[in-house]
Specification:
By secondary structure, the chain is of the alpha/beta class. The protein has a single domain, classed as Rossmann fold (3-Layer(aba) Sandwich). Helices cover 41% and strands 24% of the residues. The strands form two sheets. A six-stranded mixed sheet has the order 6-7-8-3-9-10, with helices on both faces. A four-stranded antiparallel sheet has the order 2-1-4-5, covered by helices on one side. It binds adenosine-5'-triphosphate (ATP). Adenosine-5'-triphosphate binds next to strand 2 and helix 2.
């Protein structure tokens, strides 16, 4: 009798394992980049880049200075459009939409692909107004609705408990790490699908870095996160996949664990073992 029960439990475990593995395989591709080239006038900053980034994963971009990581990140919400004499070839699709299609509403694109910068950049207005800024710009005026969005966004950014009693104080009065989490709340408030982060912890101390890393790990439940980092330990701590960039090329992209423990390319190995960079 006992062994029958044990067998049933075992079968149920197997079944669950199968479902989970199938679930993993069915993760949708959120961003599909195909043969992407990017130029700043004559500078060929990205060269034939093809990558798939899946939903609800943290995707890290690593590589030495000037290899194209930030350029790649900024292509994803067409921030580079703002720089004169730039040009792009190839395609970037977010789900079914080609983001370079002339019909694309770039303002809408930047709402669904939010960005967090290296240096925390809260507006010199209250904590509440910082987070409510985007929703207000989208036409939400109702005070209760705004309050709900502000609380939800600050909770998502793991900042609510620290600021709930001082929402009217200036965003710039917070510590660097809190300011960065405020910026993440500001992005979350417009309900993006993708969050781009350009070295979001490089201006923070170790404790603040730890908090933002923990937050990134939680954010992937609701968002796809693409993050540039100079810190390889950070990439290995927080990301599911990593792409190694060099001179505008993607040399290797793989599961983070695989890329750091068993890289396929010699250049990747040399970089992660500190032979150059
Ligand atoms: N606004 C710009 N105008 C002209 N060239 C640029 C501009 N931004 C970047 N570049 C050039 O494009 C190439 C890629 O730069 P990018 O900033 O994407 O590299 P990165 O890997 O993010 O570097 P870092 O790690 O130092 O931030 C470099 O040769 C850089 O000089």
């Amino acid at each position: 009798m006992i062994s029958q029960i044990e067998k049933k439990v075992e079968m149920a475990d197997e079944q669950e394992k199968k479902i989970r593995i199938t679930g993993e395989q069915e993760k949708k591709v959120k961003i599909s980049v195909d043969q992407l080239d990017f130029f700043y006038d004559q500078t060929h900053a990205l060269n034939n880049v093809s990558l798939d980034i899946k939903e609800n994963e943290v995707f890290a971009l690593i590589g030495p200075s000037g290899c194209g990581k930030t350029t790649f990140l900024r292509v994803l919400n067409r921030m580079n459009d703002l720089i004169p004499k730039t040009s792009v070839k190839g395609s970037v699709r977010i789900e079914d939409q080609d983001i370079f299609d002339p019909g694309v509403d770039v303002v809408q694109l930047r709402k669904s692909v939010g960005m967090v910068f290296q240096k925390p950049n809260p507006f010199p207005i209250s904590i509440f107004d910082n987070v409510a800024y985007g929703p207000r710009a989208n036409g939400i005026k109702n005070k209760e609705e705004l309050m709900g969005i502000v609380e939800e966004s600050l909770r998502q950014a793991s900042l609510w408990d620290e600021v709930k009693d001082k929402l009217s104080e200036s965003g710039t009065s917070l510590s660097g790490g809190q300011q960065q989490r405020l910026c993440i709340a500001r992005v979350a408030a417009v309900k993006p699908e993708i969050i781009l982060m350009d070295e979001p912890t490089s201006a923070l101390d170790p404790l603040a870095t730890f908090k933002v890393e923990a937050l990134i790990n939680e954010l992937k439940q609701n968002y796809t996160v693409v993050i540039v980092t100079h810190n390889m330990q950070q990439a290995s701590r927080i990301s599911d996949k990593t792409a190694f960039f060099l001179n505008g090329f993607v040399i290797e992209a793989d599961e983070t664990n695989q890329l750091f423990t068993n890289p396929k390319e010699k250049q990747t190995e040399d970089y992660i073992t500190g032979k150059f960079g």
